[in-house]
Design a protein that fits this description.
This protein has helices spanning about 35-45, 60-65, 65-75, 80-90, 100-105, 110-125, 190-205, 220-240, 250-255, 265-280; strands at about 1-5, 10-15, 15, 25, 50-55, 75-80, 135, 140, 145-150, 160, 165-170, 210, 285-290, 295-300. It has about 300 residues and is an alpha/beta fold. The chain has one domain (about 1-105, about 125-235): Ribonuclease Z/Hydroxyacylglutathione hydrolase-like (Metallo-beta-lactamase, Chain A). Helix 1 (about 35-45) links the parallel strand 4 (about 25) and strand 5 (about 50-55). The termini are far apart. Bound molecules: zinc ion. Zinc ion binds next to loops. The site of zinc ion has 6 residues, from loops.
Length: about 300
Amino acid sequence: MTLPLPFRLGHVHSYLLPGADGWTVVDTGLGLPGARERWADELRSLDGPVGRIFVTHYHPDHVGASTDLIELTGAPLYQGTRDHEQCVLTWGTDRSHPVEDWFTRHGMPPTLAARLGAETALIRSAVHFAADAILVDEGDEIDGWELVAAPGHADGQLTLLRDGVLIGGDHLLAPISPAIGLWPASNADPLGDYFDALARTIDIAPRLVLPGHHDPIEDPSARARELISHHRERLDATVRAVSAGPRTAHDVSGALFGDRLSDSDQRFAVTEALSHLERLVIEDRAASHEQSGIVTYTAA
Ligand SMILES: [Zn+2]
C-alpha cells in the first residue's frame, strides 16, 4: 500500500503480510489529516482482520499513523526496544534538547535553525506514536518473520526476513541512497553501523528487498555494495572539504551538497555531513574541535 507524503519524497510504502490469524501491517505512514480515513478504506477491502502492526523505525513517515491504526484495528503494535526509546526522545514531550541547538552548535545560522525547529514542531503534530508498543528485538519473530537489525538510517531499525524476502524499511533504497545522519540522540557512529549492516546484508543475501520507498530491489547484495562505495567516496570528499582548515558540519554540507538546498534538505545535509565527519574522526582521518559552543573539524 502506497501512502502520500507532503515532502519531496512524495510517498511511503506500507506492507500487508498475510498470516493464519490475520494480516500484519508493516509501517503506518504519516499521521496526516485524512490518514485514518485512507486506512479505514484500505482495511475494509481486506479479507480478514489485522492481527498486528509492526513499525520498522521511528521516522515520521513510518511511525506517524501508529495510534490511528491501533484504534482502527484493535491490534497490538510491535516496535524495536532501541527504536521506541529514540521515538519517545524525538517525538515525546521532553524538549530539553531542542534540535535547533544541535544545528547551531554545528554551524547552522540561527535563523535557519529556528525555521527547522518550527518545521519539526509541525511534523510532530503528524506523529502519533504508540506509547505502549510491545517491545521486540533482533532475533525475535513476528508471525514467522525473523527480525534482523539494520542500523544506520535509524539506530534501532528492524527489518523482517522470511524465505529470502526482506521487508527492509529504509535500509536499502534505490535509486536514492538512504539518509545516514547523526542526530542529537543517535549512536555515536551511525555510518560505521551502516557499513556493518550492509556487510551483513551481503552475508544474508536476500533475493528481494521490499523497501519503504521506490521500487523493490532485486539484487540486494549488489545494491549494498554500491552503497558501501558511495559512502566511501563521500568520506573522501568530506576529508577534502576540511583539508583547507577548520570547517563546521554546516560548511561541509555546503561543499558536499551545494548551497542551494531547501530548509528541509539542509536538515538532512548537515546531519549526513556529521555522520561522515565523525566516521573520519574514528578512522583518524579528521579531528574535531570545540570553541565557544561551536564544533569544527580539520583533516588529521
Ligand atoms: Zn526513515
